[in-house]
Amino acid sequence: MAVSRLFKRFCGLHKANARIQACLPGYIHRRALSDSKVFNNGDDTVLPVLIVGAGPVGLVLSLLLTKLGVKCSVLEKSKTFSKHPQAHFINNRSMEVFRKLDGLAEEIQRSQPPVDLWRKFIYCTSLYGSILGSVDHMQPQDFEQVVSPASVAHFSQYKLISLLLKELENLSFKLCMSNELEGLNHRPFQERQLLMGHECVSIKANDDFISVTASFLKDGKRMERNIRCNIIVGTDGAGSTVRKLAGIDMRGKRDLQKLVSVHFSSRDLGKYLLSERPGMLFFIFNTEAIGVLVAHDLKQGEFVLQIPFYPPQQNLEDFSPEICEELIFKLVGRELSDINVIDIKPWVMHAEVAEKFISCGNRIILAGDAAHRFPPAGGFGMNTGIQDSHNLAWKIASVVKGIAPSSILHTYETERRPIAIFNTELSIQNFKAAMTVPAALGLDPTVANSVHQVINEGVGSILPSGLQRAILDGIFTIGRAQLSESLLNEKNPLGSSRLANLRRIFEEGKSLQLQFPAEDLGFRYLEGALIPDTDDALGAPEGPTGRRRDYVPSVDPGSRLPHMNVAILSNSSSEVTISTLDLISGDKIEFLLIIAPADSSYHLAHAAFKVAEEFKVSARVCVLWPAGSVKQVEAGSKALLTPWENYIDVVEVKKSSNPSSWWDLCQMTDKGAILVRPDEHVAWRVKSGVVGDPITEMRRVFSATLGVKPHNRRDQEADR
């Protein structure tokens, strides 16, 4: 019930607000929309989907939609792509999504640093100084691919964007700069374009389409172009213009921490850490400076340093390249002859979720950081956004292709917003865990923040700015004195006690965590485009703890389909082994029915094929045979599934580390069946066979999942 309480707590902070908001030079004009007019099929002047924001979330969405046959294009405000590394941890579930993008996951695995170079977080007094402790975040099972066919990755965001752009180029996307465009408003906006330097400044909706105005510079002059689309998806980051234009507020905790991010390179430092103390994150505490160093690539010597920032007593001028170099030297423990400060950016840590993800009659949609902003602890930001896109893509495609009404898009919010709220709370928990380490060393971060607040808002606010700065610096100096070698050592009783407390934190897993398998793979949609179990006694999963928990496979409706290796049975002499997740197509809207080779299950398969045909959606049947039954499968399922041909026979491939059968893993009998959605989440399951007419049951399932009433199918097609 903890997730439900979290959800209610966020929802209770607001009431739905349908106001018109003029945040920028444009505005959104809202009108009631008839579902029959949501799409103008055949009108080449209207683009089905316009994506605003070319970060990882927007680019992944454009790839998924294009592979599903949906015409789309992307607007990006920036003229060039940033080389700032930003997000860098890709979890199991995101890597599973990338496996469907033409070898993207494999390319990331080949290109990333070896795992032994980034599996640890290291806590030290300087990079050349004493190590206070280290935490290895990889466990033996992480390498065995028991729970997932994909491994986590450490791969900088700008490198990921580069690979995504190559994927788009392979799909005939064209990257366009504003000065390359001619005849801007004299021809329809084309699909498969990525327009750089184009800022969305207004959105106007009517019964027929959404009109988006994009502003850009051409030959030094500010110009505009109008783009007509059916759906606009805002993937334009934490400061989302689309969200502001739609008048959607963020709810949660603001200004958790202000920091300055310093992107720099030093091959000398990389070479030293590579040989002496490789790691992903270095938490550095000494009397002169405190900071967190992210080692993006030790071999290339690419780093980002995160430093606490306390404006207005501090300002960005206090972090010039020269001053940042001195800070880096203090944290490293010596000077670096080849240091190159590349970029310096201030940023603010928030923990917020948009009050809604869908607006304007299911026509305006938010995804990624536009919909939720997390502390970076645990890497949930980009990963949650990528999974937003995965959830959304098949639903948009279903509407565009006339398979489902536009109301199915609302299930995107129903499913993904509770996950965002949960991940927000988990990120906060993990951020608090990170703060236990400096607190154990005598540096309570809440004290620094409280003092800063008093200076800004309390009695200190009346003091001259120079005196405010001096007070703040003095307090920080006193705080850092707790880290002196004379105090922080085993011979000093206070220092010895603090170091022992620090060891307990590491040993008990109470410090900052990198991996959350139970949440990364085990998140579950409780309602939406699915059929909840009538006998579901589990209820909502337990709330976030901030600790690593193992993933427990489940086929409860709304769960991701568990992974198991299976071998394809065919007449070929060579055996092809795949994951159960590979049984779902990434190139079309197709539902997968998994059954055992039992007579009643074959009858259910016939019903599923027939009903899917009625609903104008593709269905595939997987007949999953138990291990060791290959000799019984010589004829396969052909005779029992004729005339239907879209089926596959597979047999379990058991591992010594996971000897369970598929149906035991799923806690079902082999009389059961599982229907899987195009996004690899379970839409429906029956544990031990359908009671009653299979045709009737399948109609109920497809009707509820797609949001289409069977008797309204003909009327719906007529409307289109």
Radius of gyration: 27 Å
So what's the oligomer here?
Answer: single chain
User: How many strand units?
Assistant: 26
Which whole number gives the mean pLDDT? 88
Structural class, from secondary structure content?
alpha/beta
**Alpha plus pi helix count:** 19
* Main pleated sheet: 9 strands, mixed
Q: Mind explaining what this structure looks like?
A:
The protein is an alpha/beta fold. 31% of the residues lie in helices and 22% in strands. α1 packs across α10 and α9 runs antiparallel to α10. The longest helix has 31 residues. The chain is globular.
Which secondary structure elements does this structure contain, and how are they paired or packed?
Layout: H1 2-11, E1 47-52, H2 56-67, E2 72-76, E3 89-90, H3 92-99, H4 104-111, E4 120-124, E5 131-136, E6 153-154, H5 157-170, E7 174-176, E8 193-196, E9 199-205, E10 210-218, E11 221-234, H6 241-245, E12 250-265, H7 267-276, E13 281-285, E14 290-297, E15 302-308, H8 321-332, E16 340-354, E17 358-359, E18 364-366, E19 372-373, H9 380-400, H10 410-440, H11 445-457, H12 465-480, H13 493-507, H14 517-522, E20 565-568, E21 576-579, E22 590-595, H15 599-614, E23 618-625, H16 638-641, E24 647-652, H17 662-665, E25 673-676, E26 682-686, H18 694-706, H19 713-719
Parallel strand pairs: 1-2, 1-11, 2-8, 4-13, 7-8, 11-18, 22-23, 23-24
Antiparallel strand pairs: 3-6, 4-5, 9-10, 10-11, 12-15, 12-16, 13-14, 14-15, 16-19, 17-18, 20-21, 20-24, 22-25, 25-26
Helix pairs in contact: 1-10, 2-5, 2-9, 9-10, 11-12, 15-18
Q: Can you give me a brief rundown of this structure?
A:
Helices cover 31% and strands 22% of the residues.
